[in-house]
Every structure is written in structure tokens, then in C-alpha cells.
Amino acid sequence: MNGDFRRQLPSMIGMASMFLVTIFLAMFIRPWYDKAGLQAFGAEGASQLRYIGLELLMIFVFTAAILALARYKKEWIIKYGIMGILFIALMYASVPLAHQIMVDDTVEPFEYESTDFVEAEYLTEIGMNQYIDSIRTNESGIINNTIRLNQLGMDEPVWTSVIPHGNESYELAKLVVATGPDTITINNGALIQTLSLTDGTLLSTYECFKYDTEGNILPIVQFGCILAVETSDSVYIVDGGEKLHRFKTFPESPNVMTPQGVWQLPNEMKVVDDLIEAELLDDTHLLIVSKEMAGVVELEETTSQPGDPGTGTQQSANVLINATSSTNFSAVDVGYSNVADVTMSEATNSDQLIVLGTEDGDIMAWNYQSAEDIKVVEESRVSINNFADQIRDVRLTDIDNSGYTELLITTGDEARLLYGSSMVQKLIVDVPEGENVAVAFGDTPKDTEDDTTHLHAVVIGENYSTTAGVVESSMFLSGGIVFEDIPTMIGLLVSIILMILLYVHSEWYVVNTVGILVGSGVIVMLGVSFVPTLIMVFMVAAAIYDAWAVYKSKHMLDLADTMINLNLPILLVAPQDSDYSFRAERTPLGDVEHSSDGPDSDSIQSSAQPRERVIKKSNDAMLMGLGDVIFPGMLVLSTLQYIGGDHGWIMAMTTLVGSLVGYSILMWYVGQGKAQAGLPLLNGGAILGYVLGGLMTIGMAMFQFNISL
Length: 709
Prior knowledge:
four-stranded antiparallel beta sheet; elongated; 12 helices; alpha+beta
């Protein structure tokens, strides 16, 4: 037995080499599929379980059809049908491979051209390419804030408005802003002031304190005015105790507020030092994003437990989203959805998309539908788990002025533009370092003339700096399916030649060449089409079916005999001797000698799909069905596609190592002459490697892909 195992060792090593070459070739051509957005069931189908069920059903139908045609002596239908399928599958690899080798798709690097340092406080972004800043002055004890609306790419502010800051006791108080559709409310704990976003006009001013009968100053809310927003008839204030207060306002009594009710916000929705952003979505809903929690708060008018502001037990506020993050939210934007079907000008409603980023690299998104009964619906097409190691900024933008928006995401060291509803990555640029950064596109007058645009990176600190550079068309990554004439013709010609050789001279080296190319093409096509969790479900189901087909029904043996006798080997061949000829291989697997050394006397020494076997003659070979390579390879490719980054690479490699461990165990059984179904060991090893890699890197997030039926 040991001597026989040693004689088979070269075949085992050769098979392992072809196993690796097939998967690494799939990894090499994956960028072509990625850039083309070639997912079998689209971006949404990548996380939908029903499509895995469809794939399994097609496997069963294919197997049953081949066996039925063989039984009724319709081999010619099988032969030419499979030849056609193989030709198509060959082009899945040969055409992308030719493009990857021959087409130089490198892009011109983006470079920053200028940096401006601004001695002002950066307050918040407005829309796609504007922002608000403030300059504080103290002249003879009179403190003012000069509020400016700036547009990226423009030298002068759109408007400037000077508003009082309050007395010197509030000199160091920070400004907390809440934007609205047409206004911005600014609060410093003493004064609440609302300005028009159109021209900066000061619309109203309210005080955060009142006087008692003895003239003493008292706060109007118990824990201080931290965040304030003004609607058409009210001012809502959030205090340091996460309480939401409503004060009624009256046009005939300017600067007067009358308390109406108090609601308790969730404890995680902290606004003291933890507020990321607040935005009034409409007159009755306020988006509050703090580090630990994000939510759309319903601005009610009455409460069943009014009491006095700051006293008693308050009714809980109605929070629509109620999203939390264990690693803190870090970025937010609200705008027109980048997966909408129509342009902004053609839209008939005011629906908005809320996009959140977290410090550990997740993207979360919700549609806010103001006119619907269910106002907040999760947008799974935009939500992405583990997009990067860190999210520093998110921005809905329209770089090409098409009316459709794109999603610009700034990670730890770069900004990535996800283009259109397919969210194809179209632009990647480096961004400056800084804990707080805002990245957006803005046109200068020269951009209009030159048909270019500028990318601006605003690094925010005690003051802020704006770094800018020109984005040109040569910097964009190629998106969509790319077919260059010469690579496409070469890929097509290679496929035709290989099919002719397979038909007239199906020797083992021709079979292996076809098998490696077909396997790599199928691996990458399916690997980029499903998230890892669904791939693992597919692998488990296939492994169970494989074991049943080999150990119970044994119908895979008949299928393999049919394929080999028709010179249609969908497998890999590792000869043990140099004089081996696959064309002379005609030993039906059903005729291979059964083992009788144990209670399982029905077990055979070889299997089909998987097709590892050792034929007892001097010029034998080891055969492996392509399915045994394709399934572990799919998980490797899916990990690279949907985990991505360094973590994705590590997990892909542990998945590959796990499958090789399963292969080694499989070869140990084969070396002893024991037939084994390959997928249980190969798939099991790959899944175990994926899990171990995930535990070392991203933890339980390795399973979180928003799976749906």
C-alpha cells in the first residue's frame, strides 16, 4: 500500500497544482468581471437565496437529462449539446484572459494641485457641493458669528450673514447646526437662530433661558439647549438628557416660545459631544445621527404626558429607523437616491436617501418616503457590509450632471466613486489624512470651459483646509463590458482551436487545458454573483448531493462513463506515467473492482463528480471532476469580491488553504484505494478555512450579507 501511495504521489501533486492554477487564474480574470458588473442575477440577486435554489435545480435537471438521453441512445444530442456548452464556458475565461493580458487599463493618477488653509470653523455640508462655516469675532465684548455659505470651487461665499453669539459667558460655546430643506438652525446654548439657505437672512431668534419673577436667569430646559431645529410653527430642542422638547411659536409674537410637550429619546441618541449630524427632513421628521445611534424622530405636536419641560416621566419619542452601531457612526448624507430610476428633475416626489457610514467600514442606507404610510424603508441595494476598514465620509453627488446621483465614499485613505444604480467603482483617489474629512466635487469657471471637474477634500480640525485637484476622464476606471477587437478575436480563436482539439485529439493535456480554462471561467462567473454566505449554502447542498450520488444512487458513475465514452471529459487528468494516454482510457467506472474490506462492501474504488480514482494498471491516472475545483474556488472568489481589502485577501487565502487540507485528506483515502465523494471534504475544508479566516479578521460580520429569499 505504501509503495502504491508513493507511486501515486506525483499524480496527487500534479492534481493539486492544477487545482491551484484554476483558482488563481479565476482570481486573475476577476477584475474584468468586476469592472463589467457581470453578476449572473444582478447586484440584488447576490444575496437572494432563491437563486441558489435555481442553480441546484439546474444541476439536477442537467444530470437527469444526460442520463435520460443516454438511456434512449441519443448520444449525439449529448455530444454536440455539451460541446456547445463547453465552447461558451471556454469563452467565459479565454476572452477575459486575453483582455487582462493585452489591454492596458491603467488610469492616469489623480493629483492635488492646491491647498488652502481657512481660519474658520467648518460647520456642515449643504447639498452636493456647498458647506457652511463660521468666523467668530469679539469686538469690545460684543461677540458675533459670521456665517458663510460656500460653494466648492468658488473664491467668494454665496452669501454671508452676521449673527450675535451672546454675552461673553458663552464665548467658548460651540455652534450646533441642524439643516432643513430651506433653512439652517444654529444654536450655541444661549441663542437659537434660523437663517434662510437662499440668501442668509436671519429669520428668527429665540433665547434658551428665561427670567423668573425676581429677575434671575433660568434655562428653559433642564439640561440645556444642545440641539435645536425650527419648523413652520414650532421649535424643537434636544437637551443633554436626551429629551425632546416642543415649543410652539407664533407669527404675531416673534421670539416667543410656549412649551407644549416633552418626549424621551433613546439613551443611545446622545447629542452632547456625540452628535454627527442633524437634518430636518420635513416639517414633522428630524434625522439625528449620533455616534452610537441614528434615527428619524417623529416631531409630534401633542403628548399624553405633557408635564412641565424637564420634569416627570416623559412619553418615548417615536423613532423610525432606530439604527445602532457598536463601532460608532462616522458619516451621513441625505440626498436623491443613487439607485433611483429617473433623474432628479423627472422625479414626482420628494423621497430622499439616508446613507450612513461606520467607523468599521459598513454602509447603511434607508429610503425616506415622506408621502407614504411606511416612511422609512431599508435600501439593501446601497447597504454594504465591510466596504472598507473605515468610513470617513459619504456624499451623494452628480459628477457628470446627468441628473442621476452617484455615491462617493471616503475610506481611511481614499475616496471611491460608485457610479449609477449598479454602483460600479469608477474612480479611486487618495485623500489627505485627518480624523474628520469631507470630500466632494465642485466646478470652477475654468472647469466649465474645459469640461472637467474638481475634487475637493476638506480636512476639518480647529480650523480647516481645502485641497483640490482636477478630475479628468482619463482618471476613470473602465466600467461596463469592455470588448476590444483584437483580444476578443484571440479569445474566440483560442476557444475554437481548443474545441477542435478536444473533438479530434482529446488527449490528457488538451483535456486539462480546457478543464482549467472552463473551471476558472465558471468559478469567477458564479463567485462574483453570490455573497459568501450563499456560496457556502450552495456548497453544503452540493456536498450532500455529491455524497448521495456516489454512495447511494451511484448514478454519477453512469454519467461519467457517458462523458468519457463520448470524448467529453469535464474533468482534470493527472497521469502517473509519461506514456499514459487518456484517449485509450475506456474502463467504465461501473466496472471498477468493489472493495470488500469492511461492512460497506458496496463502496467502490473510484467516483464520478468527484472523479478521483486509481486504475490498477501501470499507465493509470488520477481524475478529478471540475466540480471539485469549482465549488471551493467560488468561495475564494466570492470572498475577494464581497469582503475585499486586506481582510478579504486573508480570508480568501485561508479558504484556499482549507480546501487544500480537505484535498490532502481526500488523497489519503484515494491512496488507500477507498472511493470518496470529493465535495464533502473539499467544500468542508474551504468553509472551515473561511470561518477561521473570518474569526481572525472581521468576526461574525463574515456572515452578515442581508440574505433574503
